[in-house]
Write a structure and sequence with these properties.
Low-confidence stretches: 128-137, 150-156
Distance between the termini: 68 Å
Structural class: mainly alpha
Order of helices and strands: HHHHHEEH
Shape: globular
Helix content: 55-70%
Strand content: under 5%
Number of strands: 2
Radius of gyration: 24 Å
Strand order of the largest sheet: 1-2
């Protein structure tokens, strides 16, 4: 087909960032309606299978903002089945096993994940976090923040000390107190 645009899953994800959370919420509503109003119908089987296989995992994988759409979908199925098994095992160990309670717990977890993703999209800063206005010089230009690779270490002490010793000329192997 000439002239047709080939949109991959990551391209669609960039165009419509709230597609998955909204579809997860709609799937949750459809699953709740089908389970409560249509016992024994084929629609109940299809909607419940879709919800249990994709929605719990995708609700939480969307928070990580993975770029590869196909890998995200594969991970969502695996994570969904894992979450389903953990909820079932927890209810079994607590002695509260019931299909309706398990579906309700999965529904609550999935809706919470989808709402967290929508909140994440709503409160995203329009400016990149690694830039700030250079107000000291009054130029109004954006400049990058200083690189702090040690911010994830506890108090930043090992990496900060090595960087300081390298600046002062002592090597890490010597262990000098620089």
């Amino acid at each position: 087909m000439m002239g047709a645009r080939n949109l991959s899953l990551p391209a669609v994800k960039r165009l419509l960032p709230c597609t998955w959370p909204v579809s997860i919420l709609l799937s949750a509503v459809a699953m709740a309606v089908c389970v409560s109003l249509a016992p024994g119908q084929a629609a109940r089987l299809i909607v419940t299978l879709w919800f249990l296989s994709v929605c719990p995992g995708m609700a939480f994988l969307e928070l990580s903002e993975l770029q590869d759409g196909y890998a995200t979908l594969a991970l969502a199925v695996a994570l969904s089945w894992s979450i389903d098994a953990m909820v079932g095992a927890t209810l079994l160990y607590l002695g509260r096993w019931s299909v309706h309670v398990a579906l309700l717990a999965l529904l609550v977890l999935t809706v919470a994940g989808a709402l967290l993703r929508l909140a994440q999209l709503a409160y995203r800063s329009p400016r990149p976090p690694a830039a700030r206005r250079d107000m000291a010089h009054g130029s109004g230009r954006l400049r990058p923040l200083p690189r702090r690779s040690h911010r994830f270490l506890p108090l930043g002490w090992p990496l900060a000390g090595r960087q300081r010793r390298q600046r002062e000329g002592a090597s890490w192997a010597q262990g000098g107190r620089g």
